[in-house]
Amino acid sequence: MFRSARLKLTAWYLLIIMFISMSFSIAIYKVLVSELERFVSIQRSRIERRLREGEFFPPEIHFRGMLPHTSIMDPELVEEIKRRIILILIAVNSGILLVSGGFGYVFAGRTLKPIQDMLDEQNRFITDSSHELRTPLTSLKSAMEVNLRDKHLTLKGAKVLITESISEVNKLQSLSDELLQLAQYQKTQDLAKFEKLSLANLVKKAIRKIKPIAKQKNMLIQNNTLDIEIDGSKHGLCDLFTILLDNAIKYSPEKASVTISSQKNDGSIEISVADQGIGIDKKDIPHIFDRFYRTDVARSKTNAGGYGLGLSIAKKITDIHHGSINVKSKPDKGSVFTIRLPIHQTARITKPPFFS
Question: What does it catalyze (predicted)?
Answer without folding.
Answer: ATP + protein L-histidine = ADP + protein N-phospho-L-histidine
